[in-house]
Amino acid sequence: MKRQDYISWDEYFMGIAILSGERSKDPNTQVGACIVGSDNRILSVGYNGFPNGCSDELFPWAREGSDLETKYPFVAHSELNAILNYRGGSLEESKLYVSLFPCNECAKAIIQAGIKTVIYDSDKYEGTPMNIASKRMFDAAGVEYKQYVHSGREIKIDV
User: Fold this and answer.
1) What pairs with residue 123 in β-bridges?
2) pLDDT in tens, 36-92
3) 126 has catalytic annotation
């Protein structure tokens, strides 16, 4: 008889997204993303960080200060990194699991990439103008978005 207590696809893929976020060197915010095909195969992953070739030691991680003294003009978000990391062709009809609801800039990239479903964990910025813009664009483009429902199961990884 097969085991009955295995994790669901949603638990698995959100777990991959959250674990990917742990690669981020951002001292304040760690976000991960996992793109999945219609056959439940992982297509790509990403996390928030600086573009290739931009040293984590030379660019700022600050949240406050003048524009060029903060991380904001330099950091690529996890969703964009996952889209850009994909090397296999089209992302049409795929799903994106992400630990934080996408900003308006990532929403544009998600729509343009052809991703049709976004499953997010936290909606920390709900109600902000950029969050509202993301949802308006998703609604207009027919991108389904839904919050991940935690199962309450504890999954421990010993490494």
Assistant:
1) none
2) 999 999 999 999 999 999 999 999 999 999 999 999 999 999 999 999 999 988 999
3) no
C-alpha neighbours within 13 Å on the C-beta side of residue 124: 10
CA 84: distance to chain centroid?
12
Residue in 23, 10, 8 with CA at minimum distance from that of residue 96: 10
Q: Which helix (H) or strand (E) holds 136?
A: helix 129-141
Instruction: From 109, 112, 55, 116, select the one nearest 78 (Cα to Cα).
Output: 109
Catalytic residue among 11, 57, 69, 79: 79
As beta bridge partners, residue 145 has 118
DSSP 96-113: EEEEEPPPHHHHHHHHHH
